[in-house]
Specification:
328 residues, alpha/beta, 16 strands, globular
Length: 328
Amino acid sequence: MNVTYPRKLMPGDLVRVIAPARSRAMVAEHDHSALIEQRFAQMGLRISYGSHVDERDSLDSSSIKSRVYDVHAAFADPQVAGILTVIGGFNSNELLPYLDWDLIAANPKILCGYSDITALQNAILAHTGLVTYSGPHWSSFGMRDHFEQTRQWFTETLLNNRGLDLKPSELWTDDDWFLDQDNRNPLAGDGWWSLQPGTASGRVVGGNLCTLNLLQGTPHMPALDGALLFLEDDYESHPATFARDLTSLLQVPDARGITGLVIGRFQRASQMTRDLLDQIVRTQPVLSGLPVLANADFGHTQPQITLPIGGRAELTVGPTNRIRIAAD
């Protein structure tokens, strides 16, 4: 697959905020927009908002028509250099039959978000070859404390064209920070988990596992042959759920061509342990002989790496673990 990297952000650029899943009106119940806009100003970036970001229905989302309009408007506007999603949710895949892939391909630009946005990102890769970014939402920038590492990875990935060597975070958080910014207790990191040794490189495919699986059997599923998978899930993905979701993905015919697997850190409520995850990985015949690294810094805990979906990465698992995001 031929991929296209969008131009990186520069001081003075305009970023458009859209809500392809849940509405900004829901996020505004815990309003941190002043801090968010301050942080983007510090990066030298300007913010504008899609016409329908505050539209809100009984499912805390908005109509398909409104969400598709804001996606198209963001890509079509020549003044917009990058696109950020408000937050995740459950229904980004509703948009896929209505998106103008030619419009998106003709106007390559950064799109960043995570969780439910996985459906949109991987579909864009499948249809256009455009690299998008699994990373913090617009709303993530409202985290007052313990956000420095996430912000650093975001700026290093989206505001420069160099490769990036990643290291495990020393601290991490798994809390409802938006409810109480004052009482937070970072946890000591225990490093990345070496589940199976080896080295690999490949095109990054993945994000939220249960969302990626929604694309199976549709024209929106990216090729897995040659892919280095990066997969994570949230607090609802208990070990048995994660195991069957992983099995489903790895039974896609071209999954036999994956080069390795990186698994993001689980939220504590998932009750996943290293021993359980090791058992799950070892039952997967497709993963036999491939490098597998877990407890990496992406997903639904903080800090959060910004990953290029469709971009290239290198993985080393062994006495010394290494993830390198290749330069554009």
